[in-house]
Amino acid sequence: MTLKQLELFLAIAAQRSFSRGAELVHLVQSTASQHIRGLEEEFGCRLFDRSKNGVHLTEAGRLFEQHAHRISDACTDAQLAMRRFLGAEEAILRVGASTIPAACLIPDLLGAFTAAWPGVRLELVQGDTREVLGLLQGDSVELSLVGGIEQADQLEFETIGSEEILLVARPGMVPDHLDAAGSLTQVPLIVREPGSGTRQVVDAALLKAGINLSDLRVLAQLGSSEAVRRAVLGGAGCGFISSLAVGREMRDGSLVVVTIPGLEIRQLFYLVTRRGTSRSPAAEAFIALLRDQQGTKQDAGSNSFT
């Protein structure tokens, strides 16, 4: 059984005529008759009864018609899915992102992306690094942008940008300059949850500076950079926050940087994809725009690791 035979069978059944059915699928009647005869020989039964009043389905033909419609609909869905995949029809590109990439990186390139791919709708799924990488591993998103690394053999990480993590506070809450890293243990802190990329790089930097994490005065642990920012603005404590997330507050003076000698924290952003899988053209275009925006313009494999 071929798709052409299926298409022809449905056309004849709908038109109740071999000639009109053949015309609909652009076949001559003799060729159409050969196709139907081939189907009937394959199934070992007649599909149509022919009379002077036209062509009618047999009982076997009516049974086959039910399945033929479902097969035809499935083929149509498959063709549409492939056209969407290739960007010829409306498509959906699902991207996972942790807090800062979702708030600061993706919005900056969205205009260029939608202009180049007007038929593609971007759906952003946001969470902390661990959650977003789990979505990628579960095939719920096609690619991810995160600020941390989780060991997973099936994932490939490519450095795509960086930011500075600042210790910020309301003016006058604590000294703007701490004389040593150890002084941080006396500062009330609002921190991110352990699954976040920001928390990973902050913890690593503090340990490198010789600070015992259990000695910190942690007042609250919150689930997003925005929650930490608002808590710090409200006077709850100091917080380690991306410079990208507090630019306005730094400019208007509502937050100040608390400096610590020898403590400088930079967080890398990573483009994460599933190793060994093909990506849609829309995903490839999105990645190219992202690399261009961040000024990397490097080969995808030259800066990647697991």
Write up what this structure looks like.
By secondary structure, the protein is α/β, with parallel strands linked by helices. The chain has three domains: 3-85, Arc Repressor Mutant, subunit A (Orthogonal Bundle); 95-160 and 272-305, D-Maltodextrin-Binding Protein, domain 2 (3-Layer(aba) Sandwich); 161-267, Periplasmic binding protein-like II (D-Maltodextrin-Binding Protein, domain 2, 3-Layer(aba) Sandwich), CATH 3.40.190.10. It has ten helices and twelve strands. α1 (3-15) crosses α2, α1 crosses α3 (29-43) and α5 crosses α10.
Please give a handful of descriptors for the protein shown.
306 residues; alpha/beta; Arc Repressor Mutant, subunit A; D-Maltodextrin-Binding Protein, domain 2; 3 domains; ten-stranded mixed β-sheet; 42% helix; disordered C terminus
Helix content: 40-55%
Question: Which CATH first-tier class of the largest domain would you pick?
Answer: Alpha Beta
What's the structural domain tally?
3
The total beta strand count reads: 12
Question: What's the helix and strand layout?
Answer:
Elements: H1 3-15, H2 18-24, H3 29-43, E1 48-51, E2 54-57, H4 59-85, E3 91-97, H5 99-116, E4 120-126, H6 129-137, E5 143-146, E6 155-169, E7 188-192, H7 197-208, E8 217-222, H8 225-233, E9 238-242, H9 247-252, E10 256-257, E11 265-274, H10 281-294, E12 304-305
Parallel strand pairs: 3-4, 3-5, 7-8, 7-9
Antiparallel strand pairs: 1-2, 5-11, 6-9, 6-10, 6-11, 6-12
Helix pairs in contact: 1-2, 1-3, 1-4, 2-3, 5-10
